Amino acid sequence: MTSAAPADTSPVNAAVVRADGCTRVFGDGPGAVTAVSGASLTVHRGELVALVGPSGSGKTTLLSMLGALLTPTAGRVFIGDVETTALTERERTRLRAARIGFVFQSAGLLPYLTAVENVATVGSFAGLSRPVARRRAEQLLDELGLANRAGHLPKALSGGEQQRVAIARALLNDPPLLLADEPTAHLDGERGRQVIGLIADAVRQHGRAGVVVTHDDRVAAHADRVMAMTDGRLATDPAAAHPAVSG
Amino acid sequence: MTWTAVRLGIAELWRSRARTALAAGTVAVLAFLTMTLAGLADSLDRGSTGVLQAVDADVVVFNEEARRQLLRSRVPHGQATALLQVDGVRAVGTIALVPTSAETPAGATRVTLVGYHARTPAEPTRLVAGRLPVDGEPGIAAVDSSLRGSGVEIGDEITIAGDRVVEVVGFVEDARFLQQPTVWVPPDMWAQVRMRAFPETGWAESLAGVSLLRISPDADPATVAAAVNSTVDGLDAVPLAEGVRAIPGVDVQRGTFGVIVTLTVAVTALVVTLLFVLIVTERRVQLATLRALGAPPRLLAVALLSQATAVWLLALVAGTAGTAALSAVAPEAMPLALRPAVVATAGAALLLAALAGAGFALRRVHRLDPAIAMEDDQT
Lengths: 247, 379
Ligand SMILES: Nc1ncnc2c1ncn2[C@@H]1O[C@H](COP(=O)(O)OP(=O)(O)O)[C@@H](O)[C@H]1O
Ligand SMILES: [Mg+2]
Fold this sequence. Notes:
The complex is a heterodimer.
Chain A: E1 15-26, E2 33-44, E3 48-52, H1 59-66, E4 74-79, E5 82-83, H2 89-99, E6 100-103, H3 115-125, H4 130-143, H5 159-171, E7 177-181, H6 189-205, E8 209-213, H7 217-222, E9 225-230, E10 233-234, H8 238-241
Parallel strand pairs in A: 3-8, 3-9, 6-7, 7-8
Antiparallel strand pairs in A: 1-2, 1-4, 4-5, 9-10
Helix pairs in contact in A: 3-4, 3-5, 5-6
Chain B: H1 2-15, H2 17-53, E1 59-63, E2 75-76, H3 80-85, E3 89-104, E4 107-116, E5 127-130, E6 140-144, E7 157-160, E8 164-172, E9 182-185, H4 187-197, E10 208-215, H5 221-231, E11 235-239, H6 240-245, H7 250-282, H8 284-292, H9 297-329, H10 340-367
Parallel strand pairs in B: 4-9, 6-8
Antiparallel strand pairs in B: 1-10, 1-11, 2-10, 3-4, 3-7, 3-10, 5-8, 6-9, 7-8
Helix pairs in contact in B: 1-9, 2-7, 2-9, 2-10, 7-10, 9-10
The structure holds adenosine-5'-diphosphate (ADP) and magnesium ion.
The site of magnesium ion has 3 residues of chain A, from helix 1.
């Protein structure tokens, strides 16, 4: 990537994640399902991409491949200049810890850890010391307006608060790439807007790349680009070739 | 990272205490069973074999016709000279056993009288109170400490074999034979009692029973026993452990309890396996989420193993306390005493069972697909 397109390595325009003709087939024989077919996509620093499309169109599958959670049947994925599809499982695990922040549809917090413990725990996956991770977790919760909820268990938090804790967790290791799968699906309008605003801020203010899967038009409004999936195919988006980085 | 894992595992147990108590309680029942059976096996074993375990010998010598029966053996003490000539033998002693009865403050009880020479390998080593008789001392005995249960104290006089009176000068621990207390006396008293018990045998000038050999530190009991058998006619020498196994009932007892205790430990492993397979299955999405966030499988493994260890520890404490309580209220006919060595051995076996059970569940953790984290059935 770096040798092919020198312009992309500039701090502003650098590609953070790139999918190259990614296909994913589940199962084999007559029952095989092609969830994603030949998807190509590049997301740059400071850019937020919304991935929309009907249920079952392959959005989650594509996001999982971008996030090194799922190996494509064909095609390649790069994060920075690392080809994640060529890594071992162990290397992918380490890469996810250090370079990718995930926000899931349900917050996916550990029910037996407090908000701040949930956030701080992922620090150890990326080699942060406990006190450093703890301090950073407190600071992030503070920035996300949860300073007074830090010591609560997830069950004492509202859905929106849980999702904000999940965002703090995703940001703890300061990853260049943020991936979110329908983060507002379980939230009402106001809280959903707040969560999207926070994700957009996290992407733009810190020069991250973000991909948000959504059904939600409000999310699309925040995005720099909207890409539509139907039947596993990513609609060609003219903007993809010449990304316009907004700030 | 390891500490993070341990803290995760323990935090989960702590924050779901009711569940943890249920799991630990289930394992504690099995730990109680294991501990009770192991304690019982150990107590019965010591009750049967104490007389041979209480002496400081490496090789036991019977006469051939005795077929390794302590009560039937008649090796004369005069053989000592010949035995001392055998390679590797350092010291020779003799114990001679007579089944008889004793009058205690609590009434008549069956005992085994043990005649022995002081300061030989036949002298009991587990003196817990008082002193041992000296050769030639008349009317003196050291007795097995289980006679304390019958009200016997140091300085008491007890009547043996109907009309022989001995003064108790010491207590020897764990020196029973066939579940009966032993009374250790000098050769002269033994000869008197034997004369009354078996008048047809006549007066014995010296002890005739089982020779006990202490061997050189670098010698091997089996080799010395073989050397005895090939140099001295009419004898049957065996290493102490074999002599112990030849005591009636010991082999069957050990075999039976061995199987039962192994079974309870195996059931413990099975129960822990089921518990942890359930936990892993139920926590599938949670564990996959941790994997997705970059936790290596090793971290989840350590978290689960620390949970297994914690459950084991709780169960062990509860189970051992249960067995200790049972041994306090157990009827006299049920010899149950818990030695630290038994707790340690059974505890270690249970820990292995717990880790093996949890380890089995770990294979599921290693096969867990982190992509499951994206599924929407989380809470
Ligand atoms: N693990 C899987 N095994 C088999 N089929 C799957 C799996 N994951 C997704 N699919 C199928 O792939 C298609 C795309 O699914 P998904 O990516 O979840 O779509 P979306 O997120 O857009 O709703 C669906 O037909 C779905 O049933
Ligand atoms: Mg989906």
